[in-house]
């Protein structure tokens, strides 16, 4: 084919896998029937593939990857005659490993051990979700930043929404108590103090399950990756009168 596959999209599925989807090359650039596609994975945008996988489908899950690592993916189409050109590279981070659940919760709080990145980062969000009927949220990487709401907005919503419980900038804070009532704010918005940049880590509901993930911003350009969801953790029952 003269043309490369179109609309190549890469999504982080987990801390060890990425999924890739694409569409066939333009019809007038196929020069025959497409018999398969080759997906190339590399560590840098224009470096050679360290792995190639072939498929007849228009999607592929790449497994056995390293967590918190950026990979570059490109796709080509082949006919019986031979290979076509690669698409442009798409870079994507795998998720980081999940935060760990701690055992010392109360009716209104849960404690987690956070994953502190070894790489430099500017800040990370701790994002929490109330789990209705034991359901887990979507893959953390699939949430846009503007889909992450505040505690107050999550409280008002009829459907559970992931909310930013805290902004963490320190490499030394690996124990985190969800529901401790503290306020934190984005370091980028301190100059123009506005309430919208404050995040309230409000009390949790008793006898209710929650899960968290971290969204880690690695520079001021807005590049980020997310961790996997923590295991579900349940607050204690309310024992007061």
UniProtKB/TrEMBL annotation:
Q: Name one Pfam family in it.
A: fn3
GO cellular component entries: membrane
Which key words are in the record? Receptor
Domain of life according to the entry:
Eukaryota
Xref: Gene3D superfamilies: Immunoglobulins
Q: Which PANTHER family match?
A: CYTOKINE RECEPTOR
Q: What is this protein called?
A: Receptor-type tyrosine- phosphatase delta
């Amino acid at each position: 084919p003269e043309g490369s596959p179109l609309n190549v999209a890469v999504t982080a599925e987990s801390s060890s896998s990425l999924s890739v989807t694409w569409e066939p090359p333009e019809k007038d650039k196929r020069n025959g029937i497409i018999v398969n596609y080759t997906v190339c994975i590399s560590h840098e945008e224009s470096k050679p593939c360290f792995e190639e996988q072939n498929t007849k489908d228009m999607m592929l899950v790449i497994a056995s990857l390293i967590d918190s690592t950026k990979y570059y993916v490109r796709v080509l189409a082949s006919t019986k005659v031979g290979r076509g050109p690669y698409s442009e590279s798409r870079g994507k981070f795998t998720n980081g490993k999940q935060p760990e659940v701690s055992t010392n919760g109360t009716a209104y709080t849960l404690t987690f051990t956070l994953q502190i990145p070894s790489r430099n980062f500017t800040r990370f969000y701790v994002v929490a979700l109330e789990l209705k009927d034991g359901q887990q949220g979507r893959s953390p990487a699939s949430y846009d930043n503007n889909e992450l709401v505040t505690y107050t907005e999550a409280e008002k919503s009829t459907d559970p929404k992931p909310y930013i419980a805290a902004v963490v900038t320190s490499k030394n804070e690996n124990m985190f108590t969800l529901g401790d009532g503290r306020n934190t704010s984005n370091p980028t918005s301190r100059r123009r103090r506005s309430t919208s940049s404050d995040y309230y880590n409000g009390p949790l509901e008793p006898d209710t399950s929650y899960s968290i993930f971290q969204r880690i911003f690695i520079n001021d350009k807005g590049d980020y990756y997310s961790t996997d969801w923590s295991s579900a953790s349940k607050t204690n029952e309310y024992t007061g009168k």
